[in-house]
Design brief:
This protein is an alpha+beta fold and 103 residues long. The chain has four helices and four strands, in the order ααββαββα. The protein starts with 9 loop residues before the first helix and ends in a 5-residue tail after the last helix.
């Protein structure tokens, strides 16, 4: 009995995974999360830099989800996210759930 209708899927899956690893900016870029008080009249903000996403609509969508998850306000300035309050731990937890690795 021959292997007429035999198809190998492993090589195709590996090619897809390698392409996904190269094209996925979430795993390549280094993300900086810091807390600041300077210039905000004593109010603390959490600043998130280096997300590696150039599309404004994707960053806005991420900001909206993050504000709901953290339960706070926030704004997008120069592709950097600013959240009100000390939200470092919650933002790290949220970004890991979204698939960002380099925190």
């Amino acid at each position: 009995m021959g292997k007429r209708n035999w198809i190998e899927f492993e090589s195709q899956e590996n090619k897809y995974e390698e392409k996904f690893k190269l094209d996925n900016p979430r795993k390549i870029s280094k993300i900086n999360i810091s807390k600041q008080k300077k210039g905000k009249k004593g109010k603390t903000i959490t600043l998130i830099k280096g997300l590696g996403i150039e599309n404004k609509s994707q960053i806005r969508e991420l900001l909206k989800k993050m504000k709901v998850f953290c339960g706070t306000g926030g704004v997008l300035i120069d592709n950097n996210i600013q959240l009100q309050g000390d939200m470092i731990i919650k933002s790290i937890e949220f970004l890991r759930k979204e698939g960002f690795q380099n925190l």
